[in-house]
Specification:
single chain, mainly alpha, Serine Threonine Protein Phosphatase 5, Tetratricopeptide repeat, Helix Hairpins, 4 domains, six-stranded parallel β-sheet, 22 helices, P-loop_NTPase, repeat, Ankyrin_rpt
């Protein structure tokens, strides 16, 4: 009996668990005929044996019995398989398919739960780390503000160094402020510490920052009568013309001994210093921008390295998958041709060994994909920081595609209830990491093509699969499995006919009888004469792509109407 291995073989208990699918996918009539012919052969052989043993006693009787047996066998062969037996066989295959799909669903559900647990653990860890960081920042901010007010220069310097080393309190910790906008310089001015004010001004902080009620450091120092600090602030660029929210200037609220200092100050010097301060600020901003761009370039290099690793892992997975398909094909031949049991067992062992290699390659591919996701996330964060865009929250991108339950796949995909697929103008892509959709579609009346099978992708067979779908109005199902094979598909279809995949995707192949260019009269016979094709069956044809990869190719997502199979508990 012809058998068929798939990526779901391991989940179904080894390759044999998935192998009845080929028979179920359209070889029932062939199998029935073969069974009848085998029966006829067996009966004919039995009759011949009986004839040989009784030849001397009753030659005519033996010949008559043999003729009757041959006639009976021929009649059975012409009549085809017994309807009751065929129904029982179909019921058995459907039961196996249901059991396999349930095993796949359960395995995929467990994997999804485990993946969600890992993601939730990562999110919880990130939340805890962020909460700890915010707590540390709050504690450090409070300590810096207190040190500035108290004039604790050593404590302030140590705190600023700690903030810069840990990446806390923003790109410039010296500009740290409380909830009202009062900066370290403002607190130092209010505290009256001349050395602290000088230190902060040398660090290039803004001397005219506005805090609570719009008060600047100079306004607060003047209001509190800090005679040592006011001249330092004026010399550092503080503008005596900036008032509070009520319009009061520093000179208005200063004690008498400071009014003369403020009134006599040359504001032209303030304007000159303002230009210098702006130049220093631009210089610092440029340095910070260069640092951010360097971080972006580093993140881009990280993404490039992760992409290269991901491509290597995908290539290894593809090779492992193709090797598995070859081993399954060899095992199928052993079963079909009834090779010796020892040889069949060796072929089966080779299948199991290839499945182990595939499992290892899948694990490596998953690790590479996760590393690529992490690198891309780091790049997005660096780009957002460099562009000053977003609020710093990095939500997970929603999965692509229209969610559909496996039980609703017949209505949504096959029947297109509501006409959403037809209205989109694109062929459907089914994303299903569980493998249930693959089993479901192979049990439907479809022409199934395994993109990893060299036999399925051979130009003659691929051509007949497509042509048969057009002739009989059946879906052509292209299963990419869990490998990134989409970039290779145009070349594979080009080997049948140049530009074939593009013509199929834009549906131009179906118009103007362009599909007749696929017909090979010497190979296809009368069955595929152009007159045998009908508009109704052409309208019933569809091109379906299956993909079980966790991260499908972006070009594939762009080209297709995407359906995403969701799992139920």
């Amino acid at each position: 009996m012809a058998v068929r291995g798939t990526a779901t073989g391991a989940a179904a208990g080894g390759p044999a668990g998935a192998r009845s699918l080929k028979a179920a996918a359209g070889t029932g009539g062939v199998k029935g005929g073969a069974t009848a012919k085998s029966t006829a052969t067996a009966k004919g052989s039995a009759a011949s044996g009986a004839k040989g043993t009784k030849k001397a006693a009753a030659p005519e009787t033996a010949r008559s019995a043999g003729a009757r047996a041959a006639a009976t066998a021929e009649a059975e062969a012409e009549a085809g398989p017994d309807p009751a037996e065929e129904a029982a066989r179909r019921a058995e295959l459907e039961a196996k398919a249901a059991a396999e799909m349930e095993a796949l669903r359960a395995a995929a559900w467990r994997a999804q739960l485990e993946a969600e647990r890992r993601r939730e653990a990562e999110r919880r860890k990130a939340r805890e780390e962020e909460a700890a960081r915010r707590k540390e920042e709050a504690s450090l901010r409070k300590a810096l503000l207190e040190a500035a007010y108290d004039g604790d220069d050593d404590g302030l310097r140590a705190g600023l160094q700690r903030a810069a080393a840990a990446g806390l309190l923003g790109p410039d910790p010296a500009e740290t402020a409380d909830g009202h906008g009062n900066t370290l310089l403002s607190e130092a001015a209010a505290g009256g510490s001349a050395s602290t004010v000088q230190m902060l001004l040398k660090l290039g902080v803004d001397p005219n920052s506005r805090g609570e009620f719009g008060r600047t450091p100079l306004w607060r120092a003047a209001f509190l009568g800090k005679a040592e600090v006011v001249p330092l602030l004026l010399e550092g660029g503080a503008d005596p013309r900036i008032g509070n929210e009520g319009g009061e200037l520093p000179v208005h609220v200063a004690p008498p001994e400071l009014k003369e200092t403020l009134g006599a100050w040359d504001t032209a010097a303030t304007d000159r210093m303002a230009a210098q301060i702006e130049a220093r600020r631009a210089e610092r901003a440029g340095a910070a921008a260069a640092q951010r761009q360097a971080a972006v370039r580093g993140a881009e290099e990280g993404v490039s390295g992760a992409e290269a690793s991901h491509e290597r892992a995908q290539s290894q997975l593809k090779c492992a998958r193709m090797e598995l398909e070859k081993r399954i094909h060899e095992y199928d031949i052993c079963v079909e041709e009834r090779k010796p049991e020892g040889l069949t067992q060796v072929a089966l062992d080779q299948v199991h060994a290839a499945e182990a290699v595939v499992a290892e390659a899948r694990a490596h591919a998953a690790e590479a994909a996760e590393a690529l996701d992490a690198a891309r996330l780091a790049l997005r964060r660096q780009q957002q920081e460099a562009a000053a865009a977003g609020d710093g929250e990095d939500g997970e991108a929603p999965p692509p595609g229209v969610p559909v339950a496996i039980k609703a796949l017949h209505d949504v995909l096959v029947r297109d209830v509501g006409g959403l697929i037809a209205a989109s103008g694109r062929w459907p892509l089914v994303l299903d990491s569980s493998g249930q959709a693959s089993v479901f579609l192979r049990y439907q009346d479809t022409n199934y093509v395994n993109a990893l099978s060299s036999a399925h992708m051979a130009p003659p067979r691929l051509r007949r699969s497509l042509l048969g779908g057009l002739r009989y109005g059946k879906p052509l199902v292209l299963d990419l499995q869990d490998c990134d094979l989409w970039p290779e598909m145009p070349a594979a279809f080009d080997r049948v006919q140049p530009g074939l995949l593009a013509a199929l995707l834009d549906r131009s192949l179906l118009s103007g009888e362009r599909y007749t260019s696929l017909i090979r009269p010497e190979e296809d016979g009368d069955e595929y004469e152009p007159s045998r094709f009908s508009e109704g069956r052409l309208r019933a044809f569809s091109f379906v792509v299956l993909c079980s990869a966790a991260r499908p190719n972006p070009a594939l997502l762009e080209a297709m109407y995407v359906l995403r199979v969701v799992l139920s508990g």
